[in-house]
Amino acid sequence: MISQCVDNKTDTVFAENNSFSPESFAFDKRVAIVFDDMVSRSVPGYETIQLLVADLALHFNRKNLIYDLGCSTGNTILSLIKRTDKPLRLIGVDNSADMLAECKNKLINIPGHQIELVDEDLASRSLYQKGKADVVILNLVLQFVRPLLRAGIIKNAYRNIEHGGCLILVEKTIQKDADLNKLFIDYYHGYKKEMGYSELEISNKREALENKLIPFFLDENIALLKEAGFSHVSPFFQWMNFSGILAVKN
Question: Largest Cα–Cα distance of the chain, in whole Å?
């Protein structure tokens, strides 16, 4: 039986009585210990996204080598393990030591799989020293990377994916139509209220992420994948301003 080893701590990082400064937001210990609650309440359809990502990754996995780039606390790795009876080789990469510590605690007692956690920057050219991948996953990660670095990360992934493998990208996006973009954002904030976040928490988080989470248009993300060389590129998930894209390498 798989135990997630999650404390289920509630996200109050942006609460009114909190001393947290929005300008200093980082994926540090304070965020890491509440991350599971934060992401499950902040990303619409989060459980569905995890199931779809896991099933797609397992479909394209042949030699049992999957990279989860920006693995955070290990939720995607855990989803992969839960969706298969076959042994997997999983490499989780993150540049936050606090996130990796939470990830290790969650996955430490899971038998039957080879799991490696690597503290590394996603823009590093030595990212794939463990071997070429059948699957590379970027689940709600690339949006936090400086825009000028994103093409290089995608191209490096393409070079290190086996033929017949894939890259799975899930991102928050923006719309080209300004009215629809506002509608989607308003709807998203309404969703967060339904998840228990206050107006102040929503406002504080929006301010904190203003220059750290920089979403692209859906078409921009698709173009990055095609320009890197992926031959088959298609969205597989959409909820207002959240999109999942599958990119296959011939």
Answer: 53
Q: Is residue 81 over pLDDT 70?
A: yes
At 193-244, the pLDDT tens digits run 999 999 999 998 998 898 899 999 999 999 999 999 999 999 999 999 999 9
The mean predicted confidence, pLDDT, of the chain is 92
SS3 246: strand
**Among 196, 133, 118, CA closest to 168:** 133
CATH of domain 22-248: 3.40.50.150
Q: Where are the domains of the chain?
A: 22-248
Which helix H or strand E contains 53, and what residues bound it?
A: helix 46-60
The backbone torsions φ and ψ at residue 181, rounded to the nearest 5 degrees and listed phi first, read -60, -45
> Which residues have C-beta within 8 Å of that of residue 46, sequence separation ≥ 6?
39, 40
Per the document, the length of the chain is 250
Residues of the chain with pLDDT > 90, as a percent, come to: 85
Nearest to 226 by CA among 208, 198, 246: 246
Angle between helices 199-208 and 178-194 (to 10 degrees): 130
